[in-house]
Amino acid sequence: MGSKNVVNNYGSFDVTFAYGKGSTCYDVNGKKYIDFLAGIAVNSFGHNFKPLVKAVQKQLKRQIHTCNYFTSDVGLEYADSLLKASGFSGIYFGNSGAEANEAAFKLARKYGFLTGGEKRKTIYTLESSFHGRTLATLTATGQKKFHPECFAPYAPGFKTIKANDYQAIKTAFDDTTAALMIECIQGEGGVNLVDSEWAKQAAHEARKAGALVMVDEVQTGFGRTGTLFASDWLGFEPDVVSFAKGVAGGIPMGGILFRGKAAEVFKAGDHQSTFAGNPLACSAALVVLKELLKDGFMQSVEQKGEYIKKAIKSWNSKFVKEVRGKGLLLGIDIDETKSAVELETKLLQNGLLTSTAGKNTLRLVPPLNISQKEIDSGLEILKQTLLQF
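The structure assignment produced for this chain is given below.
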């Protein structure tokens, strides 16, 4: 298949997929897999979702791309729809999560300069967070394992505080702080939930110091946790939200939403992207948003997540130490004598697609519209694999 010609930066498994339908995938040998991974929370509506396929096919015949010297009809329609649904006043389109966070950081730096001059440059993130693979977003990531010496020097001006630590936020922010960025559920860091009361207090303290409050919703946005954005259930209104992954159901897309004191920061030339928000991506994103906003849909995401957690807990497996998460972003902590990668590998062999979030956490992020039959099939594979583990 020529796979040896592709640099294996991902540590990819020796499995090549050919097609999928719903939350089920098939490899080139015809083997069937239940998808509890969704392309790492990207395929919001699984594979071959008819409304999405139809919309993309229709747009392909009209226009795939036009440069951002102009606007597109579908791009404007999507922007208006998302702003109305989210309550933000402005939007910037990008291509990926890392690019979205880069845009957020640039906005924060310019905001800091406009309000505090050269001294207001510091951006705070959380320990155990993950914000991307570029040099700036790696620096912002609160995990030392993502800071190898070979990529140094890293971008200056980033600091971290510990999530849910009330003492830390009393002294962290001052007139040198440009922004605080919160990751509501630390997906890559272990599926760690940020406490709602702490998040509201942290946002208050940051704003009191004159800083922006930003939220990284790259993985948690667009219904993944049972609300449009995870910050909705945390109960505070951020100035800036970054998004990507599930926004367009598999078509590469990202961006930031902004409002309030962040609304007038960016001017022409401050930040640009060639492919950002092109008609094809926006046509897909419009379908995803319309589906999410249907009555009861996001509530069903939360219900499915609770069903999965309850089922796993009921097994009383000696290897499962904790099951946590919200909506369909779930983490399973396993016994320290085992590794999550080992479990992930065995599950793959048995026909279930999953991921990891650290050494001892298995991550489940199935498509938001996964059927009950596929949930039960995936859970049975997980249960039997744990029995053999």
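Interim note for the steering committee: The mean pLDDT is 96. Residues 135 and 152 are 9 Å apart (CA to CA).
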